[in-house]
Design brief:
Elements: E1 4-10, E2 15-20, E3 25-29, H1 30-37, H2 41-53, H3 55-63, H4 67-73
Antiparallel strand pairs: 1-2, 2-3
Helix pairs in contact: 2-3
Length: 80
């Protein structure tokens, strides 16, 4: 299990950079994740919201293999 100490999204590289409690550094290519998990721009918006506002939850869902399930169960509706 990975225990995340710090994490932040680097907009310049498109990576989620994190450090675990033992000092190891990891990064995740967000574009690759969105390509695999999101089918449209609304699902990508849902992922972006999660990435910017709750990066730890984003990482946990991704590592547990539940990110795609999350995206498909949290649709974004447009106002008329």
């Amino acid at each position: 299990m990975l225990y995340v100490k710090t994490c932040k999204y680097n907009l310049d590289t498109g990576r989620l950079e994190m450090e675990d409690i033992s000092g190891n550094h990891y990064w995740i290519d967000i574009y690759a994740v969105e390509y695999e998990c999101a089918d449209n721009m609304y699902q990508r918006s849902s992922l972006d919201y999660l990435l910017y506002n709750e990066p730890i939850k984003y990482i946990n869902l991704l590592l547990d293999g539940k990110l795609k399930e999350y995206v498909h169960s949290h649709p974004i509706y447009l106002e008329d």
